[in-house]
Amino acid sequence: MEKVLEISGLTKRYRNNRGIQQVSMDVYKGDIYGFFGPNGAGKTTVMKIITGLCRADQGEIRILGLDVCTQFEQAMRNVGTLIELPDAFEYLSGEQNLRMAARFYPELPKSRVEEVLDWVGLTHCKREKVGHYSLGMKQRLGLAAAILSKPKLVILDEPTNGLDFEGMVEIRDLIVSLARDQQLTFLIASHLIREMEVICNRIGLLYEGKIIRQGLMSDLLQNTDAGPPQSLESFFLQAVQAERGALHA
Amino acid sequence: MHNLTANFINETQKLVAKKRMLVFLLLLFFLPLAVAALVSMISGGNSILSLSVFQNLLLGFLTGIVLPLQVFQLTGDLFAGELGDKSIKTVLLRPISRFKVFASKQLAILLLVAISLLIAWLATLVCGLLWMGGAVFGSGLWAGFSSYAVSLLPLAALVTLGTLIAQFFRSGSGALVFCILLFIACKLVVFIIPSLSTYLITSYTDWYTWVGTALTAGKTTSACLFLLASSIISFTAGYVLFDRKEI
To answer: Are residues A242 and A164 in the same domain?
Structure first.
């Protein structure tokens, strides 16, 4: 299988002594990789380092074989992102924001902006200023911006933040269909563990800056005593408790 | 190169999309007209101001106060402001290097400053046609234009300085206030220590007055080199800080 994202030995320490340590992971083409962990575990830090918003103290990141440090522009050409809250220019319309983003991809047809606006259900308000959008609408716009360039890797941090139930289901279905039909690869961090259980095929559990479990969801949730597979929620709680116990022992 | 151009267009679009910029450019055109009309009215229709004097008076006001303020506001908005509200992420997450982001933002600011100067110059020509005897297309036309054009050089140096200062702030207004205070301090300090004026960018904003005078080439060259060196130092230091920023 083709590796879309390779991370090895990623380490970053903040002044408050928190951060991530020796994070290594591989994401393969067509994967929907769910990134889990308690608040402050380091999920967003990893995503920020992958996309160049932060710098690692050490470690290497390759996107489709391209080193993010030395070949940033070429590597990011294959990446769409939504990290933390969607950040659009509020004095511009949703359409203007997307057209500005589209300028970086001359190969995109002009109809692409309309297409992604339609996918995320913002066509009716594309000419409204983003400052007048609700949080859910901004989130949809952020998703539209993330998939605008037809990226091979989409990195989403809490993609359903601020969406109502219907919106969450729509976005979930959109992610699944893009991964299935267009072989897009997703790296998603979310605290909505049940949502992730439905859509992810591969997961990584981050705790106190370290990856403590990772692999195919089906393998990790397999019950060792031949019983029915456990839920992702119980797997998560057991893994975190075991790690806490090991740390305190 | 394509990404640099794309972001230059984006940054310019962002600046022009703000209402206050449109109002500023309109005022820049209509205020000189209003002043010239008023002067003409007071003098009973006699043209007491020549076009070249009017152009120099307006340019002195623009380069001494208005355009430095505009530069500081724009650098504060595009750097400190966007870092503060994290909207700078929208461009940093695109396939463009930080160097190109840094350079394209400053180029967009410089373009807006150049447009401002051009609008003001055009306004003076209209004033000349309407209230100053209509002698617009004589030999003074080129001298007037070149005064406005060369004023861009010290303003470009101010753009790089404003950008450097903006790297220390996470709010556009904070950067603007600091820049204004620094600008005032630089203007005042030369009254106390006149020899310092050689080493302050702010002392060169009126160098359009040199145009057409019998200055030695050496003085002009040294002024050019000083502005260039200051710009390179400010640009490089600003870029190093910008490149290290963690969002």
So the answer is: yes
Is A156 found in the same domain as A235? yes
* ipTM metric: 0.88
Say whether B92 and A88 touch across the interface (CB within 8 A): no
Do A157 and A44 belong together in one domain?
yes
CB contact under 8 A, B246 and A55: yes
Query: CA of A2 to nearest chain B CA: how many angstroms apart?
Result: 22
Q: What is the pLDDT of residues A92-122, one digit of tens each?
A: 999 999 999 999 999 999 899 999 999 888 9
Give the model confidence (pLDDT) of A59-92 as tens digits: 999 999 999 999 999 999 999 998 877 678 999 9
Judge if A200 and A123 occupy the same domain.
Answer: no
DSSP letter assigned to residue B207 = G
Whole-model pTM: value is 0.90
A83 within some domain:
no
Res. A135: pLDDT tops 90: no
Q: Are residues A68 and A134 in the same domain?
A: no
| B17 at A interface, C-beta within 8 A | yes
Asked if residue B74 lies in contact with residue B15, where contact means CB atoms within 8 angstroms, the answer is yes
Find residue A63's DSSP bridge partners.
Answer: A5, A66
Range of the domain at A114: 88-150
